[in-house]
Amino acid sequence: MVASEVRALFAVASRPEVVSLAGGMPNVAALPLDQIGELVKDVVSEEGTAALQYGSAQGDPVLREQLCEYMALEGITASPENVIVTVGSQQALDLLTRVFVDPGDIVLTEAPTYVTAINTFAAFQADIRHVAMDDQGVIPSDLEEALVRAELDGRPVKFFYTVPNFQNPAGITMSAERRAQVVAACERHDVLIVEDNPYGLLRYDGEPEPTLYSQSEGNVVYLGSLSKTFSPGLRIGWALAPAAVRAKLVLAAESAMLSHSTFNQLVVRRYLNTFAWREQIKAFNSMYSERRDAMLNALTAMMPAGCTWTRPEGGFFVWATLPEGIDAKAMLPRAVTERVAYVPGTGFYADGRGRDSMRLSFCYPTPEQIREGVRRLVGAIEGEVDLRDTFGTTLAPSTEGHQSPAPDLP
Fold it and tell me: What is the pLDDT of residues 134-154, one digit of tens each?
């Protein structure tokens, strides 16, 4: 586990005068907080003795049934018996890695991929290998090549980790054709798929694609989360897994934390039972869609020549690539001086790649702040371009290993 030298800069970036396009924090201020407060009060007054007691490592049975109803919106038919509630989907990922990965085992991920997934795999000493993506998602031929190469090396691939919807950090959605090809490739090579889907219901354009789980229930572990559609502070996620895998995850959960927060589960259970949460998700989608559009329009209007970026159909993130020779990590101090923050692309690779890229988040700032943040970012980029044109490339030599951004950047 390696700390980041950019961590200190994020302490500066958290100042109110800095527009942060860095953190992937949902805008919980959009929730009806008075009603949520009443809901919490009711849990205490009506279920206090149960809410304050130990619970099950698999999770509250009623909540697991409700999560199956939630997943049905994504076209998943699930049994509560195969669901395990976790402390956010991040714990589910940790438990899966704990169960499957021995030091030196290969884990395949998209390139780029979720930063905290890299941290988790690295903590268990996995050999993290990336599979290339384009605007349709992971490239099946590259996945096939990685699977074959591991077999030739005589080393097992324990699973392929993917965020197929509005990927963190790239914002890309895997096409339906690619999903079928990915499932087929992993089935041929007897490799488990870990499908991480925290953003699936936050879609602003287009039609939903079928989940990988719905195409291969016996070979996919599906990870879900209420952090983006309700509250990250309650830390409710889950894994939907084949029965044998689910049993091992429950054992790993017992050893990791004994039992879940019963109180948090009962709050969420009551929320899903009494609150118009589907309408709340629609309200979130309307708000985030406006912010996504503000970012894309600002990038189109202001970014200098040589910059490119993704155009997400949902989720929280845009992935931007800088003009040739510009290093996003080296540029970050200048950007913070310009009072704007982002996450350099190197944090989303295990091998030092991504120096010419950055993740821009549109979920938390207002549209006006987003436009101002992009204006300030453009000023920083133009300053780096001037330096490049005067002195040559600003790209620093590549360094081995992964350096994580600050922990408040999901």
Answer: 999 999 999 999 999 999 999
Does the pLDDT value for residue 4 go beyond 60? Answer: no
**DSSP run (H or E) holding 127:** strand 127-134
Q: Alpha-carbon distance 166 to 315, whole Å?
A: 5
Q: What are the CA-CA distances from residue 83 to residues 53, 59, 90, 127, 159 (Å)?
A: 21, 8, 15, 28, 19
- 183 phi, psi to nearest 5 deg: -60, -45
**Burial (0-12, 13-18, 19+ Cβ within 10 Å), 391:** exposed
Secondary structure class of 144 (helix, strand, coil): helix
Report which secondary-structure segment, H or E, holds 269.
helix 262-274
Render pLDDT for 296-354 as a digit per residue (tens, 0 to 9): 999 999 999 999 999 999 999 999 999 999 999 999 999 999 999 999 999 999 998 99
Q: Which pLDDT tens digit goes with each residue over 245-283? A: 999 999 999 999 999 899 999 999 999 999 999 999 999
Q: Dihedral, CA atoms, 16, 89, 201, 196, nearest 10 degrees?
A: 110
Of 307, 266, 329, 315, which Cα lies nearest the Cα of 53?
266
The token pair that represents 167 in the structure block: 């990927």
CA distance 24 to 318: 11
Cα–Cα distance between 228 and 391 in angstroms, integer? 44
> 19 pairs with which residues across the strands?
340
Instruction: Mark 39-62 as b/e (b = at least 16 C-beta within 10 Å).
Output: bbeebeeebeeebeeebbbbbbee
Cα angle at 248 between 243 and 251, to 5 degrees?
130
Contact 292, 204 (CB under 8 A): yes
pTM summary value: 0.93
pLDDT of residue 16: 84
Question: Of 221, 178, 219, which is closest to residue 197 (Cα–Cα)?
Answer: 221
